[in-house]
Design brief:
Blueprint (H helix, E strand, L loop, with lengths): L1 H11 L31 E6 L4 E2 L3 E2 L4 E2 L15 E3 L3 E7 L2 E7 L4 E3 L4 E2 L2 E10 L6 E5 L5 E5 L7 E4 L3 E5 L9 E8 L3 E6 L2 E7 L7 E2 L3 E2 L11 E10 L5 H15 L2
Antiparallel strand pairs: 1-20, 2-3, 4-6, 5-8, 6-7, 7-20, 8-19, 9-18, 10-15, 10-20, 11-12, 11-19, 12-13, 13-14, 15-16, 16-17
Length: 260
């Protein structure tokens, strides 16, 4: 009888949601959500997070106030972000995590310029200080994917730098914290997501012979304007169109870390 009861219990117990969580300081598990770190996905080109602003035998952060050191790249590609202007480090900005504050007029970072293929994916955890004007998140040369916020009154969108607008998300620009991402395929499709849900998608048609990588964070390097006016807690991008499964796992990682 005991064997029969054990058998019945084994096959009548309810299934529990499965989730995993990457080894990240301060991240929490999200039920029913499978997480992965950016480094688990191929073609990662740059990864900057404020809680690992510097690295000396482990992640460290500067004291709150003006930043004088460069932003450490966790991708393994040595894509260190060099600081310019008056950027500041702010502690406990979202879910207890710090952020880099951009003043909207002088603060930006420059990146080593490396060649990209025709496809591009970027993730950002940001907040805008104002909704008045377009602000550059990632910028580059004339033939580069530019990822921005608050143009056309939308929270996010993408351009071919100084060439054409590829597309925008559907959510209105605001001054709340968001995690958001875009996946762009040259001469084909674009898709935006905000807070783990679709924020618009579409098709476009422009073939390019070369596309340069991002060369700046927080400024349009072609016209030397369109400064970021707000804060960035985390930012990473890939030299590829990341698949939907990995996109959702990366969103889960950010949700567990930032609570959005």
């Amino acid at each position: 009888m005991k064997k029969i009861l054990s058998f019945l219990l084994l096959f009548t117990m309810p299934a529990f949601p499965q989730y995993t969580i990457p080894t990240v300081t301060g991240a929490t598990a999200v039920a029913g959500c499978v997480s992965e770190l950016p480094t688990a996905v191929g073609n990662l080109e740059g990864w900057w997070s404020a809680d690992c602003y510097t690295n000396s035998s482990g992640c460290t952060t500067p004291a709150p106030g003006t930043i004088t050191t460069n932003w450490y790249d966790q991708s393994g590609t040595s894509n260190t972000a060099t600081v310019h202007g008056t950027c500041t480090f702010a502690a406990s900005q979202i879910n207890g995590k710090p952020a880099v504050s951009f003043d909207g007029s002088t603060c930006y970072f420059t990146l080593p310029n490396t060649y990209l293929t025709s496809n591009f994916t970027a993730f950002a955890v940001i907040v805008n200080a104002s909704t008045a004007a377009k602000e550059q998140i990632l910028g580059g040369s004339l033939e580069y994917w530019a990822y921005w916020t608050c143009n056309s009154s939308k929270e996010q969108g993408a351009d071919l730098q100084n060439n054409m607008q590829v597309g925008t998300g559907t959510a209105a620009c605001d001054t709340s914290w968001h995690q958001m991402n875009t996946v762009l395929v040259q001469n084909s499709t674009y898709a935006f997501r905000l807070g783990g849900a679709s924020d618009g998608s579409g098709t476009w048609s422009t073939a390019l012979s070369n596309i340069d990588s991002p060369t700046t964070i927080g400024i349009d390097p072609v016209s030397s304007d369109t400064f970021m006016n707000g804060k960035i807690a985390e930012l990473f991008y890939f030299d590829a169109a990341v698949g939907s499964t990995d996109v959702q796992k990366l969103e889960c990682y950010l949700k567990g870390k930032y609570g959005i």
